[in-house]
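I am still learning, so would you mind making up any protein sequence you like and the tokens describing how it folds?
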Amino acid sequence: MVTHATGTFNVSLAQIGTDDQADGSTLGRMSIDKQFHGDLEGVSKGEMMTAMTETEGSAGYVAIERVKGSLHGQQGSFVLQHGGVMNRGSPQLTILVVPDSGSGQLVGLTGRMAIVISDGVHSYDFQYELPNSQP
């Protein structure tokens, strides 16, 4: 059964190293630190790689982050994998739980997360399945 977890999060990004600039694109790397609130209470740490182009609104990123905390009261950790593309302002973003990355009471966790940014507030909608769990 698919369960929804919703809430907000704060995120801090910091550049790692120096950007690699070349004709047509700039590659960068950043650290990710998040604090989740709501149905998912916890923190995450990860890294992001970015590609910015000379065309406004076109870019891409990939990221991996490990989330530690409580999901509807179930304690443990899991890993999220991000893949995002912005095509002249039109975004596509996929965030999936890495298979078999769950630990503690989150062993067997599967799912996907959507991120919404509205008026500067970051929120998430996490659709997941967890064997033998009741939210």
User: Anything to note?
Assistant: The radius of gyration is 16 Å. Strands lie at 3-15, 20-22, 25-38, 40-53, 59-71, 74-87, 90-97, 110-118, 121-129. The CA atoms of residues 27 and 81 lie 19 Å apart. The longest strand covers residues 25-38.
